[in-house]
Fold these 2 entries.
Entry 1:
Amino acid sequence: MTGAGRKSIVILIFVLTTCSLYLLANLLLPRLGLGSHGWLLMLLAASQGGALLLLWYVLDRLRTHFRNLDRLHGAVVTLGGAATAELPEGLLTGEPELGRLAEAISVLSRRSLDAQIAYSDRMERILAARSDSVVVVTEQGQVSLVNPAAMKLLGAERVRVGTSVFAALERKSLLSALTNAHRAERPIETELRSVDAVLLPALVASLGQGEGGVLSFAGTGSADGATLEHDLTLHDQPPVSSKPEHQTPLAELPALVLDCETTGLDVQQDRIVSIGAVRLHGSKLYPSLSFDSLVNPGMPIPSVSRKIHGISDDMVRDLPGFAEVYSSLQLLLKNCVVIGHNVSFDLAMLRREFELAGLPWQAPAYLDTFLLAAMLDPESRSLELESLASEYGVDVHGRHTALGDSLVTAEIYCRMLPRLAERGIKSLAEAQAFGQEATHLTARQKAAGW
């Protein structure tokens, strides 16, 4: 309830109390023969009632104030792990003092982020202006950076960020050059063969064993109107991990954030039409290790479901079924805990698909951001993904697509970790037990067959 709403209620109660006292004084007291003693009793009752009303109002204001302090504290804690300088929009708008404090925190954080962006922009302009061609690749040959000159030399349609450099360069010569650069631990001069059988003199430098390398070719001049493209997070790889144990720290937890789009919500009848997932390790997100695939459900997709996720029968008609799609997802899922929002539904759907495909089902360990959010903020008005994204300052993108929901859920979970740690919840088992304390929600999930 807003401050204006509470004031309205207090005024209304005061008016009703005054009217009641007036009626009491003029109608009932004379009939009861209480006279002046009745007025004293009435004034005593009024003063006690007013004091109780004032006490209720003060306690309600204090409760709201401390609730807002807790919201600000949680927002500041999660800000450190966020890729933004902004606290959630509209935070503490009802309390000017705390609102000014929240704005001051945002200003300081924004200055730090602006400095980082300015540095990055300068580096981008320097690399974009170079006349020699520069391409950075991962160990698997995925392009993570390419400047305009390289686009002109190798073909802009072949070397884009996220694509395979082997669309432009012959695989054997490049892998051999990278191996030699790793061994030499210094840049080496070599020749790389293009897919068009052209030999290109190049300088190849290692980024470290297993991290990929930098390819530099003689100057060709920059491509007109082109800009530098890069996503160096593509080089990030999670550490090799064993199967999580109950006491595995959340800060070191290997996880796969997963979401499924389906033909409906009946886990006994409906089917999966899309699976999206992204890899986490602790609070580190690895967007290059993501999974996004449509699935042929083997049944018509109802119109009510199409309106939510936009997947039609025509889009999945010629695609493989669940068993074939899931075999690729298993590589990401190995030795990982599953994380999702209301993830018990997704796991129930996966269990049904396993049964239909005749595959053995083994339920994975999981964490549910829906339950964790309910326990971290019991007074939250909404636990929907959009509401939590707003609360935690996460940009919502690709909502109601499997991969889009997975990415949003992953960012929300990462920002929950500092708040969980403050509650003393630092291991997988502790987080699972904490979520299960939301008994009213777990009962509802079980009743739905999840």
Entry 2:
Amino acid sequence: MILKINLKQIGERKQKIAPVDFEYHPVPKTVRELITQTVTSCVNSYNERVREGENNANPLSEKQVTDMAGIGKIAFGINYGGKEQALDKAIDNALQSFEDGIYRVFLNDNELEKLDEEIDVSENDSLTFIRLTMLAGRMW
């Protein structure tokens, strides 16, 4: 099953959000399964890029250079540290962060509030993760 995750595009001045296809097998039945499968996909992709290292460096297009320059960093997407991420720790962190309210998850326009909440997903549904930013400072 393909779900569309809304991602902010790097370097877009108007904070353009674009859907990116994520494949889920098996179909998640709860919010916990949805987060676990999403994190698994992201960590596996990251670790694959680490393993490929500099062997997979591709030339950047002019648009990519312009977009990256807009945010102040031009990079080839190579992880020079070479350290893979532990999948179990990433999943635990994502689940704990959800429970702590660090981010919210929306399926289409409905907020998912509990990890063991059952969900009904269909092909090409829209999924949005919103990280909540804590405000720092003091009141005068």
